[in-house]
Amino acid sequence: MAFDIFQRLGSVLGQVAVERITGRHHQATAEAPAAEAAPTTDASVEAPPAEATSQAAASEPVAEAVPAAGEAPYVPVSERAWNRDYSTPPPSTSAAAPEAAPAKSAEEIEEERLWNETAEAWAAGDFEKVTQSLDRLRELQPEDASIIDEKIAAAQYNQGAAFEQSGDLNRALYLYQEAQRRSPSLGEAGFAIERVQSALNPPAPAAEAAPAAPAEQAYTVQDGDSLWAIAERQYGDGSQYTRIFEANRDQLDNPDVIQPGQVLRIPA
Fold first, then answer.
1. What are the C-alpha distances in Å from 213 to residues 1, 27, 210, 217, 268?
2. 136 contacts: CB under 8 Å, gap ≥ 6
3. 3-class DSSP assignment, residue 18
4. Which of 75, 163, 197, 229 falls 20 to 30 Å from 127 in CA-CA distance?
5. Closest Cα to residue 134, out of 124, 12, 125, 144?
6. CATH class held by domain 109-200
């Protein structure tokens, strides 16, 4: 009877020891997976097999680490890779290559060519070529029409000056007028126009004064003369005979009677 009691008591004590050991193992695994279970003080109880301990540890969930305040929550590497935004390429550690300049349009290439052509023609003194190139640029760049017109006016003025020096005044006048039309503020063109117009239309020389006719002249009466005939020869009008009669009243009493040899005064 006593043996049965001791046998039952040992069985109970062994079960309690096993429960104490396995419970202590589970608690240590949850708090620190790497820590080993503390040895029991009961030398009479054997530790459970390692296999049982591993199975028990595997069955218990592992507590996740709680991020500290202000830190981003931890995401597993595999999940980070899966959620990566592949629409934006990762930054390259190498030096970035310079961006290629955008290709120029055909219109931009033509404008550049015309500006270079204008500069070369101006340097060569070919102002007619300058005007032609700038007229074409004015069509391509209407927003710069006023600036281009000022440049054309300067070219036309210089070309007009060359024609004026060579003596082609009509051509010079036309170019000066065109320059003034393009750029009314170009005062030099206005002065040049007046100068060329004066050269093309000089003032008429003053007419020489005709010698003053004598106040009167003497006429000797011939046979067959009459005051009418004398007036017609002297004045081109016979009815002017009265002027001769009045000028000679000291020797004539009747305009119809004159004597050959008389010297009459003929008023101018």
1. 196, 158, 9, 9, 7
2. 114
3. helix
4. 197
5. 144
6. mainly alpha
The per-residue pLDDT for range 65-109, each reduced to its tens digit, is: 455 555 545 444 444 444 444 444 555 555 556 677 778 899 999
Beta carbons of 266 and 217 less than 8 angstroms apart: yes
Residues spanned by CATH 3.10.350.10 within the chain? Answer: 216-267
* H helices present in the chain, as ranges: 2-31, 50-59, 77-82, 106-124, 127-140, 145-166, 169-182, 187-200, 227-235, 241-247
Q: How far is CA 57 from CA 21, 27, 263, in A?
A: 13, 10, 176
Which CATH architecture is the domain 216-267 placed in? Roll (3.10)
**Whole-model pTM?**
0.42
Task: Give the Cβ contact number of residue 110 at 10 Å.
Answer: 14
**Residue 219 identity (one-letter amino acid):** Y
